Amino acid sequence: MSIFLMTPHEVAIHIAKQAQAKRLALNLSQKTLAQRSGVSYGTLKKFERSGQISLESLLKIALTLGVMETFEDLFPHLRSEQVISLDQLINDKPRKRGRT
Q1: Could you report the per-residue pLDDT of 5-16, keeping only the tens digit for each?
Q2: pLDDT tens-digit readout, 1-50
Q3: d(CA 30, CA 40)
């Protein structure tokens, strides 16, 4: 199933299962991954079972499993071909606040 057809909860479960598969492919136990990543064993177990985890803990696990680069494109910057005009490109400053 495409990630675009999933609910946020289903995406979380999908990510947890992918992390578990990567852990098993590396022949790591949950306890070993918990120790190496600095994430508690209970948190790791809960994550693999339910998909619930803090962003910081998820990043620690990703770093330990060697997949940190997958987060690089999570919120991509506008590409130059998406800019409407040259004036906008020259005068565009990164926003620091939302309007609403």
Answers
A1: 999 999 999 999
A2: 788 899 999 999 999 999 999 999 999 999 999 999 999 999 999 999 99
A3: 10
Q: What is the DSSP string of the chain?
A: --GGGS-HHHHHHHHHHHHHHHHHHTT--HHHHHHHHT--HHHHHHHHHH----HHHHHHHHHHHT-GGGGTTSSPPPPGGG---HHHHHH----SS---
Q: Quote the CA–CA distance of 91 and 88 in Å, as a whole number.
A: 5
Domains of the chain: 3-71 (1.10.260.40)
Q: At 5, which amino acid appears?
A: L
Scanning the structure block, which residue is given the tokens 């990164």? 94
Q: How far apart are CA 14 and CA 9, in angstroms?
A: 9
